[in-house]
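User: Last request for today: this protein with zinc ion, please.
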Amino acid sequence: MSDARSPRRYRARCLSFGAQSTAAAPIVELLDDVLITVVDGRIASVDDASALPATSDVVDLRPGLLLPGFIDSHIHFPQQDMIGSYGAQLMDWLERYAFPAEMAYADPAFSADAAERFLDRMLANGTTTAMVFATVHETSAEALFQAAARRRLRMIAGKVLMDRNAPDGLRDTDDGYAASAALIERWHGRDRLAYAVTPRFAITSTDAQLGAAKRLLEDYPGTYLHSHLSENPGEIQQTLALYPDAPNYLAVYDQFGLVNDRSHYAHGIHLSEPELELMHARQGTIAFCPTSNLFLGSGLLDIEALMRRGIPMSVATDVGGGTSFSQLRTLADGYKVAQLRGYSWHPFSAFYALTLGNAQALGLADRIGRIAPGYEADWVLLDGRSQPVLGERLARAETLEEELFAYQMLGDERAVSKTLILGTPLYERGDRVERVERTETHNA
Ligand code: GUN
Ligand code: ZN
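Assistant: Here's the final one, the structure of the complex with zinc ion:
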């Protein structure tokens, strides 16, 4: 096994987005033939390679398309085994499928095995960073952090806070502060890991627990807030019944100081005008989860309105409400949701969202989300030839826009040829490369 610290050189056709990109105006950087040198996991240089002869010390990734690794801003690791469960909308679906599946994570051995499977699955889909819900059990988040640390992934996760309206065995027995704080002290800022304070949603946390979430954010600056918001009409009704004095759903979180530019709320489909104004003022992010929103019948997020108003938006799978780990399939459903809202989600904007856009939303745009000097070398190599319909469509694509739109609408995990972490392949299609760094990590 070669030393991860020694320089690696890759030749590739790359797509990335300029640092000044926005969702409404992504700046496309197509580098047709470049030599990328990676030193100690970071990109040291990106040089034109068009005149370069083939050499044996350069790994040639052509003719695939190399992109920054996909980022998934909202996913539930303990829901991987109940993905695609039939016949329910949000509140019933939680009771019938999600809560029972999450019970199993009280067992550390189960959690440890599940964390490995989950990360394997993400890498096979080209996802290199995610913001992840664990379960209420400290052991579930611990298992995920340990598995991510061994692979040296950039990962954000948190133990769920839940102390009411949930079954026995899935509720915190106190306000959850101490268990969250212990995880933060063990993992936040260690290597490439970060902690998200994770109240599931207002329905499942008492006032005391939402207050504890606020104290955690204050006591541990740099941690994130990760939760759900305004996904389903029944959920909204139940929330407002629990908080009769709150003018709206978002105001419930806001009264506990949980809405700011470190806050990430999945869904936000049914927000009222005052909620949209508040979200804009606070610069909290809404995670668009189209496969989930369609599968659970939750509704059609108006992404064009969010972009127009300057409300930060990210893109996420929301497995297991979401029906695929593939962010390519997420983009396909995102396109269809937008079409039903009368808007066509352009492939440049969509691929920007998966990479630099999600990095910007997570405050990580100086480290991940681009292929440029100084960035961490977390990449996905797409090669659509391994998917028959996609391959044939790509062969007829005449422009970059057409090529990307083919990946957006037709691609899935079969289009992922390799996934590299810090310049080392951790996944290759048809084969899992057994080169996972098993060393302990160090504080950054
Ligand atoms: N709202 C509260 N919990 C959940 C969950 O697990 N999945 C989804 N989609 N929405 C939620
Ligand atoms: Zn969710």
